[in-house]
Every structure is written in C-alpha cells, then in structure tokens.
C-alpha cells in the first residue's frame, strides 16, 4: 500500500505533491520539474533610455511574449497544484484511518463492505442448513425433509429414523431396505414397504431363509416387480447368514449392538454437510458381514442402516427429533445394563 508523501514547506524552492484519488486509484503523481523563479533585473536609467530610444525588433517582441506566457502558465500550475494538494490532505486527514491506510481509504471501505455482505450471505445459508423449513405443526426437521416431501418419508423421519431398534425382524428389514438404496431412494422404498413385507414374510429371517429362489426371481412375480433379481437374491442369502448369527449369538440384535457396546453414538451435527457417508465403524461392521457371506453390505449401506436403526443418532441438533432419540437411547442403554446384570 503506497503512502502519500508529506507536504514540505511552501517556502522551499521545490514542492512534492500528495497523491490525488482518481478513477484509477490513489497513485503518486510524478514530481513536476522544479520551478526556477527568475529574479527581476533592475536596469539603470541610461539603459532605460537606450531601450526606449531603440525600436524593438520582431525577434525581441516574440521573446518577450513567450517569456510572459511561460511565467503566467507557471503561476497557474503552481496555484492549481497547491489547491489539489490541500484538497487531498484535507480529505485524507479527515478520515479516521491511519496514515498507512489513508491512501486507499475508498478501496478499504468497498472491500470491507463486500466482505461483510458476503459474510452475512454465507452465515444466512449456514443458518438455513441447521434445520429444515418450519412445518405447519411448528416443528423444525432435518433439512432434507421439506413440506413438499412425501408423507411416508416424513413419517419415517419422525417415527423411526434414529430410534434404537432391538427387534430381530425389524433389524433385518431395515438392513434389506438399506441395501436397496443403491437402486432406489428412501421415498421409493418406503412406498413399496408394505408389498415387500408381504413378499418376504414380514422380514422374518427364519421364514425368508426357507423361501425358494426360483419362485421369487421368476419374471412376472410380485418380488421381481419391486426389486431387481440381484437384490432379491441378496435378501435370501443374507437371511440364511442372519440365521447362523442368531444361532451363534442368541439374537441378531445382540450381534449388532455389540459393535457400539449397547450405546448409540450421539453425533451432535449442526449442519447437513457434517454428516458423513460412512465411518470407520461402518467399515468395520461391513468387513465382518462380508466375511460371514453377506451381500449388498458396503460401508455406505451399513452406515445408512446404522442411522435407521439408531446405532447412531444423525438428526441435526436443530431438529425436534434429536432430543427424542437421545432420550430413547438413554432408556435403551439403561434397560440393556439391567438385563446384563441379571444375566
């Protein structure tokens, strides 16, 4: 940042000019050449009489005119420069900014104004992401739930998503529905949920493991119209592996909740952008399931499953369901501790 030079005393022969803030910014003007004031020569009486008697030649007349014009121009430029420098000094000295920033005072104001406006705009956006639009009931939900969302999707968010699940059938059902997210959205899956329950025996893993693969994957059946053949076969295969886990651990619930020590993770996210797609815990569970022979259980699918069954509470803190899920988690943890003590 250039600093305007100080004004020297007007008595000196040379002057330095302060910069003037013009359209191209506050730049230093080039110092004009020093003005040399010619001292008047006092002529004697004899010389005066000689000059008055001798007629003036044309060359002499031209020289006198040119010297007179140049002296007038110098006087005008000096007065104008002095006025410019005084205006510049008064405008900069009146500013509360320091001397270092006074040379670009107008620019500083513009920049600070633009930064403040953009900051206000960004803060407004961030505040909007804390919670979604306020619904007719006066409640704020997570921002991916809007008043235009499908009612089944809103109901799933308000009643199930993030609530700790300890039922084997419900755990298996949400694992199958989360696996279908690679082909369908939650809205599409939830709209077909009742039909899927009818096809897959209310997602009872023992009953599903006994179903015939060919009957379900035959073209024209109800199952093939709801899900792809790959997803249908993965549900059937996973049901058989869930059955083995039940035989080993006593329940599918016990196997799943051991990964979080029977205590849901409270994420405490404030913005939607903070919610991850997967976590190290989801990757660990996914590897263990794949080792056991499960299909369609990628880390992304498993994390969606963890969110749905309440292994992690990813409601934003601005959502009205966050505190409800926290209370449900505390109740569930207390019950699990008491049950372990009895056993």
Brief descriptors of the model:
343 residues; mainly alpha; two-stranded antiparallel sheet; two-stranded parallel sheet; 16 helices; 4 strands; 3% strand
Description:
With 343 residues, this protein is mostly helical. Helix content is 57%, strand content 3%. The protein has 16 helices and four strands. The strands form two sheets. The protein has a two-stranded antiparallel ribbon with strand order 1-2. A two-stranded parallel sheet has the order 3-4. A hairpin with a 2-residue loop joins strand 1 (20-22) and strand 2. The longest helix is centred in the N-terminal third of the chain and has 36 residues, at 58-93. Residues 7-29, 48-52 and 82-129 have low confidence and may be disordered.
* Termini separation: 76 Å
Helix/strand order, N-terminal first: EEHHHHHHHHHHHHHEHHEH
Structural class: mainly alpha
Residue-averaged pLDDT: 75
How many E-type strands? Answer: 4
Helix content: 55-70%
Adjacency order of strands in the biggest sheet: 1-2
Strand content: under 5%
Largest sheet: 2 strands, antiparallel
* Rg on CA atoms, Å: 43 Å
Which outline best applies? globular
The total of helices stands at 16
Q: Could you list the spans in which at least 5 consecutive residues all have pLDDT below 50?
A: 7-29, 48-52, 82-129
């Amino acid at each position: 940042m250039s600093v305007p030079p100080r004004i020297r005393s007007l008595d000196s022969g040379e002057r330095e000019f302060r910069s003037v803030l013009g359209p191209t910014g506050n730049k230093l003007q080039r110092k004009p050449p020093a003005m040399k004031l010619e001292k008047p020569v006092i002529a004697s009486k004899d010389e005066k009489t000689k000059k008055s008697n001798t007629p003036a030649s044309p060359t002499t007349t031209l020289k006198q005119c040119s010297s007179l014009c140049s002296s007038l121009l110098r006087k005008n430029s000096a007065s104008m420069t002095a006025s410019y420098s005084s205006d510049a000094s008064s405008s900069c000295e009146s500013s509360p900014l320091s001397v270092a920033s006074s040379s670009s005072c107008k620019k500083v104001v513009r920049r600070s104004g633009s930064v403040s406006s953009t900051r206000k705009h960004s803060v407004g956006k961030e505040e909007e992401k804390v919670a979604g639009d306020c619904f007719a009931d006066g409640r704020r939900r997570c921002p991916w739930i809007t008043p235009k969302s499908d009612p089944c999707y809103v109901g799933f968010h308000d009643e199930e998503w993030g609530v700790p699940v300890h039922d084997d059938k419900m755990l298996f059902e949400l694992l199958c529905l989360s696996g279908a997210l690679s082909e369908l959205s939650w809205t599409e899956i939830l709209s077909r949920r009742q039909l899927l329950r009818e096809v897959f025996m209310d997602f009872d893993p023992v009953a599903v493991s006994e179903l015939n693969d060919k009957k379900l994957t035959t073209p024209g059946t109800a199952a093939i119209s709801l899900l792809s053949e790959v997803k249908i076969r993965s549900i059937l295969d996973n049901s058989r592996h869930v059955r083995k886990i039940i035989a080993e651990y006593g329940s599918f619930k016990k196997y799943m909740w051991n990964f979080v020590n029977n205590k849901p993770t409270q994420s405490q996210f404030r913005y939607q952008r903070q919610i991850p797609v997967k976590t190290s815990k989801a990757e660990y569970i996914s590897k263990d399931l794949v080792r056991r022979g499960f299909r369609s259980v990628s880390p992304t699918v498993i994390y969606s499953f963890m969110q749905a069954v309440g292994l992690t509470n990813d409601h934003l803190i601005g959502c009205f369901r966050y505190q409800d899920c926290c209370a449900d988690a505390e109740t569930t943890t207390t019950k699990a501790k008491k049950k372990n003590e009895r056993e």
